[in-house]
Specification:
Blueprint (H helix, E strand, L loop, with lengths): L4 H6 L7 E4 L2 E4 L8 H21 L2 H4 L44 E8 L6 E8 L6 E10 L2 H7 L16 E8 L11 E4 L2 E3 L5 H4 L10 E2 L18 E5 L4 E2 L6 H4 L5 H11 L8 E5 L3 H12 L3 E6 L5 H6 L5 E4 L3 H6 L4 E6 L8 H6 E9 L12 H4 L5 H8 L1 H5 L8 H5 L7 E4 L5 H13 L6 E4 L4 H9 L6 E5 H4 L3
Parallel strand pairs: 12-13, 12-15, 13-14, 15-16, 16-17, 18-19
Antiparallel strand pairs: 1-2, 3-4, 5-6, 5-10, 5-19, 6-7, 7-11, 8-9
Helix pairs in contact: 7-8, 7-16
This protein binds NADP nicotinamide-adenine-dinucleotide phosphate and zinc ion (ZN) (2 copies).
Length: about 500
């Protein structure tokens, strides 16, 4: 029997009609009852998801009691939609009949999917829904490979449901529009990024921040409101609601523009929101990969001075000469890092793996902001002192062991801790997740105006597994983009 507080959270404890399975009660909402095996199935999905998160969370967080939620009338669904005119209609789990992926919907589709934690992708037949009145259907031309695709294909975040068709940097040409579509017509160049649905009624949705909607539907590896799986852009056909479609301006190249739909908005949004977009400011970009290299381009176009902080000394020349960075620090070179301490107004950290944070805090001026957008699968180590006082904890070790050292700091300044102690604090650390649809369109238009695209290596579909291996080795300048239209053969 699987059990976790998250599932109990969604189960109603009281009610006139209720089922009891292994001591968990399920309130019935007056419709047909859920069979015990259906409850178990439903529960397994959610318990698996939350248990994987719990394993990754520190104990204190995972044992916190959740806030009870009021019944919404859909007590058996933990995440019911609050509007009904959306892309798909909510269907209770009782009414769902398991179908093969190619039989779920009327439109035949073909792509490549990961089947297990090896992350290896292979050909996969599935289906897309018929174009509904507010839907746009398009033929996929190109799809970028984001490091998130790799995290997800290998289940590194512990939430993947297989088969998984990745891809959320998708561009193509419109082939069909629903009767109520207003902004797009057949033949338009369009794109889809990381999400394809949201509730439209929460505060985030009202603020054009669908990306922070608690019911946001990811482009792949998630569930539509009808319970069917979302599949991404490593495939020949997309169908999505108009609200989640981005217009690609004519002067933006489709292959090199595709990565902007995730990498672009993920760095553009925090530059704007955290006020790191003011001419004359000095911003650090940590990790010169898919996200990092477009962060440099956007920040430069905003008039910001940019320092790249990288583990790869061999990227220095291209960072400065091709991408326009003002300076380059090798993060593993302590001398270089010390010489730049206290110089940055903000940092956009795009690193995909666990990495030391203290040296980054020490690069910030007082009141500086460090924004995490990279999503390593393991927790980052965080010392409080560099944030609150601008110094690392080790200075206190120095203070207790060699108290005179501080008084004579000028005579012995070789250790990082004492140098960072010279800097004042009140630093902030934050995070950011893609961007809302309005801002995504704004970013694409800004990119078109300033000639910003990704540096890409266009590859055939059957190269995708090799490409994933090369991404892990940092062997790509700077984004792989799959030529879906020409190379995806059923
Ligand atoms: N927040 C969001 O909304 C959002 C959206 C998209 C992606 N992401 C996440 O952002 C991260 C980056 O994605 P990406 O597509 O840009 O990945 P990427 O192209 O692989 O770039 C990541 C860069 O991080 C650096 N790096 C890798 N391993 C490192 C290590 N062990 N220590 C220090 N630096 C290391 C490398 O840069 P150097 O060689 O310069 O050191 C590498 O090029 C991923 O975790 C992805 O899932 C988040
Ligand atoms: Zn992405
Ligand atoms: Zn919402």
């Amino acid at each position: 029997m699987k059990s976790c507080w998250n599932y109990k959270w969604v189960a109603e404890k009281e009610g006139k009609n209720e089922s009891r399975v292994n001591n968990v009660k399920f309130k019935q909402s007056g419709e047909e009852e859920m069979l015990p095996e259906e409850i178990e199935n439903h529960k397994n999905v959610w318990c698996g998801y939350f248990e994987s998160l719990e394993q990754k969370m520190p104990r204190s967080a995972s044992t916190m009691k959740p806030k009870p939620v009021k019944s919404t009338g859909h007590s058996r669904n933990p995440n019911p939609p609050s509007h009904r005119d959306n892309l798909t209609t909510y269907v209770s789990p009782r009414k769902m009949v398991a179908k093969l992926p190619e039989e779920e919907h009327p439109k035949q589709a073909f792509g490549w999917a990961a089947r297990d934690q090896s992350g290896l992708l292979s050909p996969f037949k599935f289906s897309r829904r018929a174009t509904a009145e507010k839907d746009v259907a398009f033929k996929v031309l190109y799809c970028g490979i984001c490091h998130s695709d790799l995290h997800m294909a290998k289940n590194e975040w512990g939430v993947t449901q297989y088969p998984l068709v990745p891809g959320h940097e998708i561009v193509g040409i419109v082939t069909e529009v629903g009767s109520k579509v207003e902004k797009f017509k057949v033949g338009d160049k369009v794109g889809v990024g990381c999400m394809v649905g949201s509730c439209r009624s929460c505060d985030s949705c009202h603020d054009n921040l669908e990306n922070y909607c608690p019911k946001m539907i990811l482009t792949y590896g998630a569930k539509n409101y009808d319970g069917t799986t979302t599949y991404g852009g490593y495939s020949d056909l997309m169908v999505a609601e108009e609200q989640f479609i981005v217009r690609i301006p004519d002067n933006l190249s489709l292959d090199a523009g595709a990565p902007l739909l995730c990498a672009g908005i993920t760095v553009y949004s925090p530059l704007r929101y955290f006020g790191l977009d003011k001419p004359g400011m000095h911003v650090g970009v940590v990790g010169l990969g898919g996200l990092g290299h477009v962060a440099v381009k956007f920040a430069k176009a905003m008039g910001v001075k940019v320092t790249v902080i990288s583990t790869s000394p061999n990227k220095k020349q291209e960072a400065v000469e091709n991408l326009g960075a003002d300076s380059f620090l090798v993060s593993r070179d302590q001398d270089q890092m010390q010489s730049a301490m206290g110089t940055l107004d903000g940092i956009i950290d795009t690193v995909s793996a666990v990495h030391p944070m203290v040296p980054l805090f020490t690069l910030l001026k007082s009141h500086g902001k460090l924004v995490l957008v990279g999503a390593p699968e393991k927790p980052l180590e965080l010392h409080a002192f560099p944030l609150i006082m601008g110094m690392c904890i080790y200075i206190y070790i120095c203070m207790s062991v060699r108290i005179t050292h501080l008084a004579n700091r000028d005579k012995d300044t070789n250790c990082m801790c004492c140098l960072c102690g010279l800097i004042t604090g009140r630093k902030m650390m934050g995070g950011s997740c893609i961007g809302g649809m309005k801002e995504t369109q704004e970013m694409i238009d800004f990119a078109a105006k300033h000639n910003i695209t990704a540096d890409v290596e266009v590859i055939p579909m059957d190269y995708v597994n090799t490409a994933m291996e090369r991404i892990l080795k940092g062997d790509v300048r700077y984004r792989f983009v799959i030529d879906v239209a020409k190379t995806l053969n059923p």
